[in-house]
Amino acid sequence: MVQKEAGGANDLLDCASSAGFVYSARSSHCSFCSVRKDEHGVLAADNVLDLIGDTPLLRLNQRIGKGIIPSVYAKLEYLNPGGSVKDRIALKMIEAAERSGDLRDGGTIVEPTSGNTGVGLAIASALKGYKCVFVLPDKMSQEKISLLKAYGAEVVVTPTNVERDSPESYYSVADALTRQIPGAFQPNQYFNANNPLSHYETTGPEIWRQTGGKIDYFVAGVGTGGTISGVGRYLKERNPNIKIVGVDAQGSLYTGSRARPYKVEGVGEDFIPATVDLELIDQWETVNDRDSFLLCRRIAREEGVLVGGSGGLAVAGALRLASRLTEHAVIVVLVPDSGRSYLSKIYNDEWMRDQGFLGLFEGSIRIGELLQRSGVDRTMITVETGELVRKAIDRLHAYGISQMPVLYAVDDGEASESDDYNAANRILGVVEERGLLERIFRDPTAIDAPVGKVMDAPLPVIDAGGDISSLVQVFHGSASGTVVVDDGRILGIITRSDLLDYMVHQHLLKEEY
Ligand SMILES: Cc1ncc(COP(=O)(O)O)c(C=O)c1O
User: 53 C-alpha to center of ligand 1: Å?
Assistant: First the structure.
């Protein structure tokens, strides 16, 4: 977008750079980015690599950060040509290798990567005429493989379930290919100093300029640590009071004592890479998968910005930090990539539900509450094994219910209130209207038999504190109902039709966000 300066002559123009710096029509290029005026006087980039960087800031205080005192700005790195922050490091690592002689004309770039760094390397290689071979584990989606191939890269797929140092792992295969292919170069973002350097030279200065030096906090998710270390070093050199805040995925080793699996991609590690400078990080926030993904969905719906999981994680960390601050401050949080790469996960309701990140029902309720809402008071309506079938049928009718649990008998003399509390352990079976009818039809004398002789296998037992989504699993099988218990006490039975009734009246499948 090129605009005339308000009220001014035609010679002062806003550069296409999103940082909004003024371009003078009398010179031939913008002083802050690589966009130039061509021989026709048209302001345009010469190639797509010139469009890397100079990403804009978006203020989040109107909607997602409404009501918080500090100003929170998101740096939208997904607006880079390859859709992520990694375009910056890919170009820098390639240019450095060209200068050092590690990469020569017609050379081949080999990298064990499945994601954004691969795209950045593939774009730069397309323009510079290098071949690219990416080694990916076979758990990666066809979508990611197709994306890399679209830029002309070759993809080698290796098995996922092998140790990092196995010869079959994608790291080992990438190392072997680098040794075997003449003129091959492996950038290795985890060990390459040009990774943080690219952020020291570009991302850091952009943020300093965009905030007019007023930034107080820089917040970023930490993967290789290149972003936070490069930006952090630059900003602290300009003003040592600026605080650098790392956001870690719950389950990663940066803030956890033991690495555990998690779903947010691109951030957190199970080892400490050479590219991170932990001394620069003043404080950490740890955010779990659920909070990261639910916030992604809110950001899309409220801000109209589709961010990846690590963006949701970083913004969650920034908002948490902001909500603790009682004075005004300027917070910049980096959003590394776009949600487009995660449509089948974060933005897919079924996947989110399968992972347990999304409740099945609006404002999902507990099982005990559903029992209360279902109206009929079925508290502790049970029958003991020794009671007669005739009596059991009378009780079913008296309470207007179709089934009840059968408990083993407690000796009369010993029966006490505490029996209620242990009732769940006394369940031996169930009697059900339909089953009883069939039984008596076949053998009319069954009406005077003890219940224990005619009962069916017990219904599944479920805890009243569980989320009602877990009922769906129970009713997947043949059970027509389930006994709800709380601390050993039987609260009642929930049937399939209770759940269906609730679904119909609660506008099933609305989300929490
Ligand atoms: C999607 C995504 N977010 C965040 C990061 C973290 O950035 P850095 O590696 O600079 O710490 C990465 C890095 O791989 C990434 O791919």
Answer: 15
Structure tokens at 111: 């990298």
Asked if residue 167 lies in contact with residue 145, where contact means CB atoms within 8 angstroms, the answer is no
Pairing of strands 403-407, 383-384: parallel
The tokens of 441 are what? 């039809």
pLDDT tens digits along 427-443:
899 999 888 999 999 99
- With H, G, I as helix, E, B as strand and everything else as coil, classify residue 147: helix
Residue 194: name the closest of 88, 83, 79 by CA.
88
Catalytic annotation on 86?
Answer: yes
The pair of structure tokens assigned to 226 is 């290149």
Going by alpha carbons, the residue nearest to atom 5 of ligand 1 is 266
Structure tokens at 202: 């570009």
- Topology of the domain covering 367-505: CBS-domain (3.10.580)
Q: Provide the CATH number for the domain formed by 105-182 in this structure.
A: 3.40.50.1100
Top pLDDT among 251 and 500 is at 251
Asked if CATH classification 3.40.50.1100 holds for the domain at 57-81+195-354, the reply, yes or no, is: yes
Ligand 1 site-directed mutation target among 77, 86, 218, 277, most atoms within 8 Å of CB:
86
Predicted confidence (pLDDT) per residue in 88-111, tens digit: 999 999 999 999 999 999 999 999
Of 86, 144, 243, 263, catalytic: 86
Q: Do domains 57-81+195-354 and 105-182 have the same CATH topology?
A: yes
Cα 157 from chain centroid (whole Å): 25
Per-domain residue ranges of the chain? 12-46, 57-81+195-354, 105-182, 367-505
Nearest to 427 by CA among 447, 409, 400: 409
How many DSSP H helices and E strands does the chain contain? 17, 20
